[in-house]
């Protein structure tokens, strides 16, 4: 809350201490101070609202809301109360209540510019575009200022954007907005650049490109001054829309001659030379394009400052001519020679590789080795000897050599080597890396070392060996090199990202948390790269860290709503109208984020796993999350995959790199897995709603209470879950292999292959059978009881089968090499989760069976008869619970055995095969192994503790 200045109003003076307490985070003192003030001044509404803010911030939401509504019901018009209520409602995430507040204030004070303005902004926060239009015009009538009028116009545009019917948008909303602006144009009332931008936006959306062009080129276009070349860029866009290629060509030439590095202008220019449409005659030939580029290169050669643009334009034109099937490319020269000349001129610049990367496909496959040797021939290196490499003498030579090495990998020359050759390349690259460190001794910690790419390339080659041969020696060496590289370049994000990926693949989550944190991801990056962390958060058994990681991601998504609303309001205030649709599209993109839906679902499942029936009951946990089985809040049709699947630097050839097909398959897999998890969560959330006292054979009463509809919901969800799992099975049978640097496979394969999917589905079928027994009573359900008995036995067997896939050592020494088995860890995590679900189901079963058994015992005592036979379903359930206890105890003992084995491993005695580590490298190797070992121990400890708590709940299952 803003610090308040000195004012004469005595009420402000009385309220000041409360404001100060709230500003300093002392909420309890703020509440006490407000109570004291309210005893003396009962009608001081603002004090009551400030007290509500204090209550809200101390977790007493219901009490705070009640107090706020008491004040809101009085329809206050004093500024203090209104502002305080606005702050409170924002903190409650109830912006719709702010609109009601100011609607009432405007009725009482109809000529207040301030209140009308606040009302408009309140509507903006909730996206009430129609009401925004009306509020804007009402404001304009009170205070005839242009911004208010154009607020109303912009609100019409927003109605057109949000309209479901595109025809309605183009026939009603946009034409009305156009007429409103034209009225201001005719009256010569257009004052600001923002108003011209808005007019242009309307005409463009209506498809009136000629009219838009006239506006930009006319008197109104002179107001477009805030952005460099804004006018020219808009003209260029309209020329393109109108297919007026001569004008587009002339403008492109003018821009290029003015500033020869404008890539956009070059692309427009080529767009003119090479037709992209069958309609419209092309007035310019390839010869003219060639001549134009040659003129630019000649002009550039006279300058002391070399420009890359003209040289790259030549290669770009060759590529475009080739793709269009033209035969004129020979007029521009041989691509191989052009790239060679480019390298000679710009090879010492770090951008040289990225410049040439897009053109390597112009080289014939048979010429790749020759091309690389040609490049190496012009790199100034020292004379090699038997025991010494040819090394660069300065940074410029290092950059040139580094560019050649990157191109070597990009052209696939490293991929065709055998294992020994690749290991030889790794040794050479690491020697060059160590030598390159000499040039970076004066670098700051925030700067990257000049030779970092040598280390990264060596790591990529080692990863190839690991993936192709399965030799884990390579992966341990990879981790060693990355950890060493990170000590020299603590800010190298690529080192950190690779360490995150590899540690997670080995099942070690503990070192990853700090690594990801040190990346210092900002804003949207929590969505684009957050999947690297959250994918493994829960799956590796470190529940506390997983919970923290999910919270970290969710905080960003939750703040997005509030932040984006503020961006929109600021855009209205400052007339940045063209940004408003972008902000709203951005907000929608984040709200519909696949990652957001995944983290939200996993977070709730994790909370239930850690708390339900341990610290709180399952029913209380579900109530606190506002979960309802019949509600699906995931926008399946609008899900957006915002993951950055190209976050890793890659020098792989195109056939080995991440393709669009990989991205499409990954999205399909992620959506399938999310559906399975979402249905599982909804099925769990439906269990407490079935837990009710029911007399036998009272199906009519049950239907009245809505319980039958709940079981119908659960049956439907169970069918959907079976279909989703079957679809998932068919997908994993395809055995899709993603590139190492591409998408991460989901947990779906492990979930299905471990048997946990079958186990969980069986447990939910047991719920259905128990419900039927409860509805029909004991006497008429012999078939159902038999089904329940078989289900209980089958469920126990299935759990044992799942456990059998968790046995084995996580780390073992084989032939002097260290071997990891992370799949065992993932299976254990799935087992713990499945046990928890089965125990919640068992708790429901117990709540239904116990009253029946008590009734039987009462009957026996009352009639003093021993002839009343106890149905075998009770014995079966007790045997099942006993079996569960034994199984969980065995798993706890197994986890203890794994811990003992890990602690007994003497990793420092291991010498990794095929390496000749220096003392420094041995230190890093030991650190890496200890991190993995320590992480495994931490995971086992947390899983063991959780299973012990679950064992305690199992002992309470008695009927």
TrEMBL record:
Tell me which InterPro entries the record gives.
Answer: NAA25_NatB_aux_su (IPR019183), TPR-like_helical_dom_sf (IPR011990)
Keywords, in A-Z order: Cytoplasm, Repeat, TPR repeat
- What is a single Pfam family found in this protein's UniProt entry? NatB_MDM20
Principal cellular location given in the protein's record: cytoplasm
An example of a Gene Ontology cellular component annotation for this protein is: NatB complex
Name where it's found.
Answer: Cytoplasm
Question: What does the protein in this record do?
Answer: Non-catalytic subunit of the NatB complex which catalyzes acetylation of the N-terminal methionine residues of peptides beginning with Met-Asp, Met-Glu, Met-Asn and Met-Gln. May play a role in normal cell-cycle progression.
Q: How does it assemble?
A: Component of the N-terminal acetyltransferase B (NatB) complex which is composed of NAA20 and NAA25.
What family classification does the UniProt entry report for this protein? Belongs to the MDM20/NAA25 family.
User: What is the protein's name according to its record?
Assistant: N-alpha-acetyltransferase 25, NatB auxiliary subunit
Recorded source organism is Heterocephalus glaber
Tell me what gene encodes this. Answer: Naa25
């Amino acid at each position: 809350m803003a610090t308040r200045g000195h004012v004469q109003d005595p009420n402000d003076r009385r309220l000041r201490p409360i404001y100060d307490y709230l500003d300093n985070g002392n909420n309890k003192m703020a509440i006490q101070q407000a109570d004291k003030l309210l005893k003396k001044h009962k009608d001081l509404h603002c004090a009551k609202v400030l007290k509500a803010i204090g209550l809200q911030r101390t977790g007493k939401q219901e009490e705070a809301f009640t107090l706020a509504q008491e004040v809101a019901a009085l329809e206050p018009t004093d500024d203090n109360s209104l502002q305080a209520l606005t702050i409170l409602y924002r903190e409650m995430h109830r912006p719709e209540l702010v609109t009601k507040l100011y609607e009432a204030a405007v009725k009482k004070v109809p000529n207040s510019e301030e209140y009308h303005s606040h009302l408009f902004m309140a509507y903006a926060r909730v996206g009430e575009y129609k009401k925004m239009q009306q509020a804007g015009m009402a404001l304009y009538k009170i205070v005839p200022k242009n911004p208010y009028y154009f607020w109303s116009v912009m609100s019409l545009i927003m109605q057109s954007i949000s309209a479901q019917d595109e025809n309605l948008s183009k026939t009603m909303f946009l034409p009305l907005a156009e007429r409103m602006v034209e009225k201001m144009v005719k009256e010569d009332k257009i004052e600001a650049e923002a108003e011209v931008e808005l007019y242009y936006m309307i005409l463009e959306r209506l498809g009136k490109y000629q009219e838009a062009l006239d506006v930009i080129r006319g008197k109104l276009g002179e107001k477009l001054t805030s952005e460099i070349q804004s006018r020219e860029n808009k003209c260029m866009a309209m020329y393109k829309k109108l297919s007026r290629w001569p004008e587009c060509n002339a403008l492109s030439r003018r821009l290029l001659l003015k500033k020869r590095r404008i890539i956009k202008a070059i692309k427009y220019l080529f767009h003119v030379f090479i037709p992209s449409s069958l309609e419209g005659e092309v007035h310019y030939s390839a010869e003219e394009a060639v001549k134009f580029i040659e003129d630019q290169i000649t002009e550039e050669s006279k300058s002391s400052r070399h420009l890359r643009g003209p040289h790259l334009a030549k290669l770009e034109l060759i590529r475009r001519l080739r793709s269009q099937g033209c035969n004129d490319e020979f007029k521009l020269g041989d691509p191989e020679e052009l790239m060679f000349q480019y390298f000679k001129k710009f090879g010492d610049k770090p951008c040289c590789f990225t410049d040439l990367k897009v053109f390597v496909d112009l080289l014939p496959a048979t010429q790749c080795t020759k091309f690389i040797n040609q490049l190496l021939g012009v790199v100034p290196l020292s004379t090699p000897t038997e025991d010494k490499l040819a090394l660069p003498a300065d940074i410029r030579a290092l950059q040139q050599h580094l560019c050649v090495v990157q191109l070597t990998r990009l052209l696939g020359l490293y991929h065709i080597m055998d294992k020994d050759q690749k290991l030889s390349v790794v040794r050479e690259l690491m020697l060059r890396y160590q030598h390159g460190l000499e040039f970076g001794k004066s670098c700051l910690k925030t700067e990257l070392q000049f030779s970092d790419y040598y280390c990264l390339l060596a790591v990529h080659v080692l990863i190839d060996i690991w993936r192709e041969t399965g030799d884990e020696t390579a992966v341990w060496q990879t981790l060693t090199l990355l950890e060493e590289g990170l000590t020299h370049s603590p800010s190298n994000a690529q080192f950190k990202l690779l360490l995150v990926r590899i540690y997670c693949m080995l099942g070690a989550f503990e070192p990853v948390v700090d690594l990801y944190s040190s990346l210092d991801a900002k804003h949207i990056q929590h969505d684009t790269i957050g999947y690297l962390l959250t994918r493994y958060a829960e799956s590796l058994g470190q529940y506390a860290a997983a919970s923290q990681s999910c919270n970290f991601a969710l905080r960003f998504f939750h703040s997005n709503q509030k932040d984006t609303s503020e961006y929109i309001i600021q855009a209205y205030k400052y007339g940045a109208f063209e940004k408003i649709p972008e902000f709203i599209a951005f907000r929608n993109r984040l709200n519909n984020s696949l990652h957001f839906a995944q983290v939200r679902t996993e977070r709730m499942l994790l909370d239930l796993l850690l708390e339900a029936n341990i610290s709180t009951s399952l029913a209380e946990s579900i109530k606190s999350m506002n979960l309802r089985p019949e509600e699906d809040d995931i926008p399946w049709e609008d899900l957006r995959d915002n993951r950055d699947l190209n976050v890793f630097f890659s020098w792989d050839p195109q056939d080995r790199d991440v393709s669009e097909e990989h991205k499409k398959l990954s999205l399909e897999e992620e959506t399938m897995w999310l559906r399975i998890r979402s249905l599982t969560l909804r099925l769990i959330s439906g269990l407490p709603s079935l837990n009710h006292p029911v007399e036998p054979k009272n199906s009519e009463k049950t239907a009245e209470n809505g319980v039958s509809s709940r079981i119908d919901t659960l049956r439907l969800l169970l069918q959907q879950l079976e279909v989703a799992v079957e679809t998932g099975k068919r997908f994993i049978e395809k055995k899709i292999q993603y590139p190492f640097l591409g998408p991460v496979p989901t947990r779906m394969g492990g979930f299905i292959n471990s048997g946990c999917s079958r186990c969980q589905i069986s447990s939910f079928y047991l719920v259905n059978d128990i419900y039927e027994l409860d509805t029909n009573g004991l006497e008429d359900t012999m078939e159902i009881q038999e089904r329940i008995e078989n289900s209980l036995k089958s469920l126990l067997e299935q759990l044992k089968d799942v456990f059998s896939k968790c046995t084995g050592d996580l780390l073992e020494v084989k032939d002097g090499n260290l071997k990891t088995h992370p799949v065992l860890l993932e299976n254990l995590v799935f087992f713990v989760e499945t046990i928890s679900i089965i125990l919640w189901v068992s708790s429901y079963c117990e709540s239904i069976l116990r009253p029946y058994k008590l009734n039987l015992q009462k009957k026996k005592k009352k009639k003093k008869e021993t002839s009343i036979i106890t149905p075998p379903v009770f014995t079966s359930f007790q045997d099942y619970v006993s079996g569960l206890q034994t199984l969980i105890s065995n798993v706890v003992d197994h986890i203890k055995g794994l811990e003992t084995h890990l602690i007994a491993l003497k990793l420092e005695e291991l010498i990794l095969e095929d390496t000749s580590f220096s003392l420094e490298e041995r230190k890093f190797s030991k650190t890496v192994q200890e991190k993995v070992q320590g992480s495994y121990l931490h995971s086992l400890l947390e899983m063991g503790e959780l299973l012990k708590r679950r064992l305690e709940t199992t002992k309470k299952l008695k009927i």
